[in-house]
Write a structure and sequence with these properties.
The protein is an alpha+beta fold and 93 residues long. It has one domain: Arc Repressor Mutant, subunit A. It has 5 helices and 3 strands; from the N terminus they run ααβααββα. The chain has a 3-stranded antiparallel β-sheet with strand order 1-3-2. A hairpin with a 2-residue loop joins strand 2 and strand 3 (63-68). Helix 2 (11-23) packs across helix 4 (39-51) and helix 3 (28-35) packs across helix 4 (39-51). The radius of gyration is 15 Å and the shape is elongated. The model has no long low-confidence stretch (mean pLDDT 92).
C-alpha cells in the first residue's frame, strides 16, 4: 500500500498511470510523448510504477509495452475502501 501511494505521489507517474488506466496499455515511447520528458526520466518513473507492482512492463523489440496490473490495483482499491469505511465510522462516533 505504501509503495503504491508513494509511486502515485509524483505528478509524472500519476499522469502515466492515469493514461494507462484510460487506454488499457501503451508503449514507453507514447509515455515519453505524453510527459514531454527525456527517455531516461520516463524510464525512471515507469520503474517506480513497476516496483510498486501497479504497472507491468514487457519488452517488445526496441520498445517497452506498459499495462496496469489489475490484481494489484484491485488490492489497492480494496484497502482504500477499508480505510474510508474506518474513517467514516470514526467520524460518526
Amino acid at each position: 500500500m505504501a509503495k503504491v501511494a508513494k509511486a502515485l505521489g509524483d505528478r509524472n507517474r500519476l499522469l502515466i498511470f492515469r493514461e494507462l488506466a484510460d487506454r488499457g496499455s501503451m508503449y514507453m515511447s507514447e509515455a515519453i510523448q505524453l510527459t514531454h520528458l527525456a527517455q531516461p526520466s520516463v524510464s525512471f518513473h515507469v520503474k517506480q510504477l513497476v516496483n510498486a507492482e501497479i504497472v507491468v512492463s514487457e519488452k517488445h523489440g526496441r520498445d517497452v509495452h506498459l499495462s496496469i496490473n489489475q490484481s494489484k490495483l484491485e488490492e489497492f482499491n480494496t484497502t482504500l475502501a477499508q480505510i474510508k469505511a474506518i474513517s467514516l465510522n470514526l467520524s460518526s462516533e
